[in-house]
## 1
Amino acid sequence: MNKFKLFQLLMAAVLALGVQVSALAHTHLEMTSPKGGETVSSPSVMMLTFGGEVRLVRVEVKGSAGPVDIGFTPVAAAQARFHMPMPFLAAGEYVVTWTAIGDDGHSVSNEFAFTVDPSAPAAVMDHGESHSHGDSGAAHSHDDHSH
């Protein structure tokens, strides 16, 4: 096999792999407020910022006393940034579990945790270009849906 044919074959394989990787790329959670692992006073608002527009279909908050009613309802219109008013949270650790559906029809789920301490500073909502990931190493799953 000559070098040109080998090069063509190698390039075709690289392009095919690139197409498969981009097809598997899902919009991810880029930033949260409060941030995963952060200790804050009771946040009045929770913010989730994604890398692209998604439909947010589930957000649950659980503390040591059980689920916290945040009044979440699934969002029909796709957007990248979500602000949710929060009730007063007692001191302790809270886990936020979310599910979003990207424009490719695949759902992505993850969770992050933060701690409430009344003596801690308030959560800071960074609306800039910071890409602080809110998942803090939590489990990440993709639920496939047939097309």
## 2
Amino acid sequence: MAGALVAKTPHFALHRAPLSSVHEGRALFPVADAWLGVLLPKRWARRAVTRNAIRRQIYEAARDQALQLPEAALVVRLRCEFSRKQFVSATSDLLKRAVRAELDQLLNRVTSSRQPDAPHAPRAVVPPEVRDAV
């Protein structure tokens, strides 16, 4: 949590810290890859079933974007409650889709900052005769 806040959505915040931090003479994280932690306080998700469903969505979203994630320690933090009036069931598909949409948005903000190094896909060139026919 000592890392900088790099992105946030209405329900989540993403913190980032370098992997190279040294604590007591040894590396804080022994891996040279993205490391992901999850912080889901009971204050914002009372039911364990809901916390576990959100946690699974976080790890699955990160797994889908694993190749684009930066080599850093990332912590996803739930920062406010999903409305229990809107999401009555603790593990409804509606809740899972809402959580996943926000997580994809959150992780895209981090991965999009890495994209400028990647080569751009060539644009399709439409010949004038085809363009005029349409």
## 3
Amino acid sequence: MFSLRTAVDRQTARQMNPVVLAFVGDAVYSLYVREKLCLSAGVGTGELQRRSVRFVSARGQNEQLDRIAPLFTEEESDIFRRARNARKGTRSKSATVAEYNRSTGFEAVLGFLYITGQIGRIDELLDVAESGNAAPAMENAASEREKEE
């Protein structure tokens, strides 16, 4: 039986097409942003949509990525690179090719973490993306790298 948060083992997730991981990650990030906005802003849905676009767009994701990419584990960096370099079936209308490719990598990392059940790691990275406080995430990434070795 399938249910939300059915975790997939890492090996299976690593074998998935990185653009498919990005498809999942796009939904994860969109839900994260929408939920956060709904809980923090007392505005209508039209305004919520306008505010969410600032974060969920390729440009917005690139800004977030600049803060968290240095914190990626080796595994996360590999997922990011594979997705960034993957052939995509669509093009962005409002972002450069580089921004679109990098945002696909960002989404793929989130998708990978989500389907492998690493919700805490998603929270950790997105907290750094928003706050800029990387110290706790850096410590956790270092311990993850040690486990991988």
